[in-house]
């Protein structure tokens, strides 16, 4: 239904009055479209990309699109206040008889009135300034005086909306005194220049800076760039250049008027969405500004012209703060290309992808979705709309006033503490930090931070005994330290004609300690990653120092604490070090997908440090910034592979599984994401999910979007529940989406009470490989275990097809040939080692190509140039790695990961691992499309 129309802030204004009661009709697929709409509206600014303008086309007439748009408006209005700022444009606003500026006045008025509680007032300075320009009377008189007259007119308009400017003008009184006492004469002599002419001059300077930018820094604002495109040269003075816009521009061109006003409006909305550290009201602006159009009309209508300029301006400004949906599109102009969606469900899928990954450069700025009147009783849509009847933006516990009070209190406390320190008052009871060098005491009781020497992670007394796992890590760190010194010795005192470049530094970011008194001193594949990193550094430097055509690399190790508990603080230390040391070009690691890992990645992204992942798989890793590149497959792809394997592979007594028990940790974003991906691919109705969170979990609260399931308090309860299910149905398989260290403990509990289920088939995620190098293997803990697990490329299985895999294995055997320990032999087949090798090789290749791009100018090689190379993609289309082909560029629609990255399922046992599923790119020209015996099945 069409919302009621009423009078707005001025004569001729048309807005909807009252609270909208429109309901979104339950058309097929509308629930996915609305869900994607909600995600785009509340998407955090840091992860936003440009959103296309959605055009609901009604080729056969009708009001279906109008009803959807009216329903979307009702979602943005809560019972006790607005949920997101929005403007709703009715048919009357697009009437050609209405004043040209009425449409913009409606948008500005409605957006300002719909600002959610606690988000402050919406100021649109650029739009208000240009509105004053285009409505100014035609200038006359000498040309030299016209810019000043235009400035005075704009300031007069500014005083109508600015209380401060109006008050200062009132204080200034009259410019010329006409009698009175001596005191009044003196006041009039001083007040006019002080309160009238000075603020007006400052207003002019501020307008120049806002519209043109700062000349000294060379930054040019959108208006200056727009004028340069129109006239060939950038303007030097705003009011002089704006004389061309008085009266709506030359000959009153309506398209030019729309173009300049749309740019100004979007620039203001983009600026209004940026957070300020001192402005708590700004921090509560968590939603996009939404523009809803009731009737777009034919191709040459007033509103369609506005929408075309809106789309172009959003692309020009890379605006990510506005989302527009227009209904009633009767015909489309062919001037601008569009994304064609066949229906609401397909449009929702496309918008959801855009919400997660953004819009690549060059992608059309509009999406056309045909809608038609039809049945409104789709069951899926009705159920979803009933569950989610309105938008649910993020909530804030404290209001802006409370935040200001807390900030003032914190500042006062800081002043008191500072004064106490100056006065010598001892505030702390503890002793000094026992850590060496630049490291500091972390949450886990160990020394964390970044260090050049392996011993820097020791305490000052040096008496702490090292467990076996930590001693093995120390050995690799010392190997890296020796390789760093070898590079420094080789490059020290070079001859003047030596063309070899200076070494660059890479930081490994991972958990180098497992916590004080922890049973597992190094969790999550850290030892495997460090070995692969050290082997790749040796390989890279041998080529670089021997040929002079590559860049040698140093490696610094950064301990992020037990399971990345101190990741954010350590990341800040690395950024501070990189600001002082220009040779630091990138960061490797992020092997565990945890919320603290994401916080650290955002710190690196803001500092412009390129990041290459070693073994992280969570889809959310790629949403933490444009500087991260992933070498491993994502959880969503692993979940699809696991679902296909469980559905078709004979993994339970020679047959496919008849039932599934999915085990996940809802507090762990890796586990929750992998479990959700498996459920989505395998089917929720066929999966029984058991939720278990370890007692020592570093993030005990539930991860965002956790899978639904039955909570289990202890591992003993989990073992009993699984055993009961297997006893009732021997064809039941366990899909383990948790960590490998927890699987070991689970199997121990199962072995103590497994009389009813002597055999068990388990399919685990890639983290299970970390349990295969422990002192006791999983099948030794539970002899009846039939274990399958996801692997991201086992080098021994690829050595015949991949020269890089063979080079990796040769390097591993040369280094560890004399180490006959079981852990070293099993780690040779661990994909974590090969992935770390590939990550180091991928980053090194990027550094080499960046250096060659400078023409051998060593002083021009820095992290910004490396980011440009990695984002555009390595020359040659990627890297033939030890774990398959890697091409993780971000340009031309690339998602900074390899689309068909190699993934495998291995069957483990005392006789060694055996590959039972292999899908993806072994090499650039060798892509495995099917798996299984005989003709096989298509790869997911």
From TrEMBL:
InterPro entries: Peripla_BP_I. Residues 1-24 are annotated as: Disordered. CDD domains: PBP1_ABC_transporter_LIVBP-like. This is Uncharacterized protein. It comes from Streptomyces roseolilacinus.
């Amino acid at each position: 239904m069409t919302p009621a129309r009423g009078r707005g802030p001025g004569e001729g204004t048309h807005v909807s009055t009252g609270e909208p009661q429109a309901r979104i009709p339950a058309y097929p697929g509308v629930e996915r479209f609305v869900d994607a709409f909600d995600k785009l509206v509340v998407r955090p600014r840091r992860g936003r990309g440009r959103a296309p303008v959605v055009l609901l086309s009604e080729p056969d007439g009708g009001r279906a699109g109008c009803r959807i748009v009216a329903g979307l408006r009702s979602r943005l209005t809560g019972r006790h206040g607005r949920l997101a700022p929005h403007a709703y444009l009715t048919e009357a606003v697009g009437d050609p008889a209405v004043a040209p500026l009425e449409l913009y006045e409606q948008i500005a008025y409605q957006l300002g009135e719909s600002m959610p509680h606690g988000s402050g007032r919406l100021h649109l300075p650029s739009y208000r300034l240009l509105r004053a320009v285009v409505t100014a009377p035609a200038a006359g008189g000498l040309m030299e005086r016209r810019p000043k007259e235009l400035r005075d007119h704009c300031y007069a308009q500014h005083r109508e909306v600015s209380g401060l400017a109006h008050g200062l003008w009132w204080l200034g009184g009259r410019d010329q005194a006409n009698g009175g006492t001596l005191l009044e004469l003196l006041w009039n002599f001083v007040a006019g220049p002080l309160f009238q002419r000075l603020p007006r001059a400052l207003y002019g300077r501020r307008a120049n800076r806002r519209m043109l930018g700062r000349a000294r820094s060379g930054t040019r604002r959108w208006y200056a760039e727009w004028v340069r495109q129109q006239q060939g040269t950038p303007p030097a003075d705003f009011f002089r250049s704006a004389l061309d816009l008085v009266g709506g521009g030359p000959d009153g061109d309506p398209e030019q008027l729309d173009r300049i006003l749309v740019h100004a409006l979007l620039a203001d909305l983009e600026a209004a969405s940026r957070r300020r550290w001192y402005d708590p009201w700004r921090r509560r602006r968590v939603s996009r500004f939404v523009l809803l159009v009731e009737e777009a009309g034919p191709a040459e209508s007033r509103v369609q012209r506005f929408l075309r300029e809106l789309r172009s301006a959003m692309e020009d400004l890379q605006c990510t703060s506005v989302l527009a949906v227009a209904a009633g599109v009767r015909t489309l102009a062919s001037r601008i290309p569009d994304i064609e969606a066949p229906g609401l469900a397909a449009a929702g899928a496309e918008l959801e992808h855009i919400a997660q990954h953004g819009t690549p450069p060059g992608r059309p700025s509009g999406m056309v979705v045909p809608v038609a009147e039809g049945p409104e009783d789709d069951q899926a849509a009705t159920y979803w709309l009933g569950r989610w009847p309105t938008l649910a933006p993020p909530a804030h516990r404290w209001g802006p006033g409370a935040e200001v009070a807390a900030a003032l209190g914190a500042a006062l406390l800081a002043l008191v503490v500072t004064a106490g320190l100056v006065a010598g008052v001892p505030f702390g009871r503890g002793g000094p930090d026992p850590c060496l060098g630049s490291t500091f005491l972390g949450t886990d009781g160990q020394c964390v931070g970044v260090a050049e020497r392996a011993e820097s992670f020791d305490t000052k007394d040096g008496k702490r005994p090292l467990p076996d796992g930590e001693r093995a890590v120390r050995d690799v760190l010392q190997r890296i330290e020796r390789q760093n010194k070898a590079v420094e010795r080789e490059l020290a005192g070079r001859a003047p004609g030596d063309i070899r470049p200076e070494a660059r530094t890479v930081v490994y970011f991972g958990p180098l300690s497992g916590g004080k008194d922890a049973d597992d001193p190094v969790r999550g594949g850290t030892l495997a990653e460090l070995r692969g990193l050290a082997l790749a550094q040796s390989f890279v430097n041998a080529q670089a120092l021997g040929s002079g055509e590559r860049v040698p690399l140093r490696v610094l190790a950064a301990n992020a604490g037990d399971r990345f508990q101190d990741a954010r603080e350590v990341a800040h230390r690395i950024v501070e070090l990189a600001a002082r040391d220009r040779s630091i070009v990138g960061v490797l690691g992020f092997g565990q997908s945890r919320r603290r890992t994401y916080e650290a990645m955002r710190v690196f992204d803001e500092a412009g440090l390129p990041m290459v992942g070693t073994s992280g798989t969570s889809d959310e890793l790629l949403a933490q910034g444009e500087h991260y590149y992933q070498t491993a497959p994502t959880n969503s792809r692993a979940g699809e592979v696991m679902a296909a394997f469980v559905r078709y592979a004979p993994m339970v007594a020679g047959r496919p599984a008849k039932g599934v028990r999915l085990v996940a940790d809802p507090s762990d974003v890796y586990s929750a994401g992998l479990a959700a991906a498996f459920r989505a691919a395998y089917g929720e109705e066929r999966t029984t999910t058991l939720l278990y969170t370890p007692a020592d979990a570093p993030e005990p609260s539930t991860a965002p979007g956790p899978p639904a399931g039955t909570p289990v308090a202890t591992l003993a309860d989990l073992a009993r529940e699984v055993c009961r299910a297997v006893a009732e149905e021997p064809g039941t398989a366990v899909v383990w989406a948790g960590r490998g260290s927890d699987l070991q403990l689970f199997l121990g509990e199962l072995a103590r009470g497994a009389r009813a289920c002597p055999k068990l088939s388990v399919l685990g995620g890639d983290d299970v490989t970390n349990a295969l190098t422990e002192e006791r293997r999983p099948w030794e803990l539970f002899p009846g275990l039939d274990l399958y697990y996801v692997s991201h490329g086992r080098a021994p299985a690829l050595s015949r097809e991949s020269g890089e895999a063979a080079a990796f294995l040769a390097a591993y055997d040369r280094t560890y040939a004399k180490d006959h320990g079981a852990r070293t032999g099993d780690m040779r087949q661990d994909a974590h080692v090969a992935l770390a090798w590939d990550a180091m090789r991928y980053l090194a290749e990027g550094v080499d190509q960046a250096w060659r791009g400078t023409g051998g100018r060593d002083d021009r090689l820095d992290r910004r140039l490396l980011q440009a190379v990695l984002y555009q993609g390595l020359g040659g289309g990627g890297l033939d790695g030890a774990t398959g082909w890697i091409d993780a560029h971000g340009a031309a629609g690339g998602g900074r990961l390899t689309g068909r990255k190699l993934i495998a399922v291995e069957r483990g046992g005392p006789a060694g691992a055996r590959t039972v599923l292999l899908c993806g790119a072994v090499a650039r020209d060798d892509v495995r499309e099917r798996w299984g015996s005989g003709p096989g099945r298509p790869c997911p």
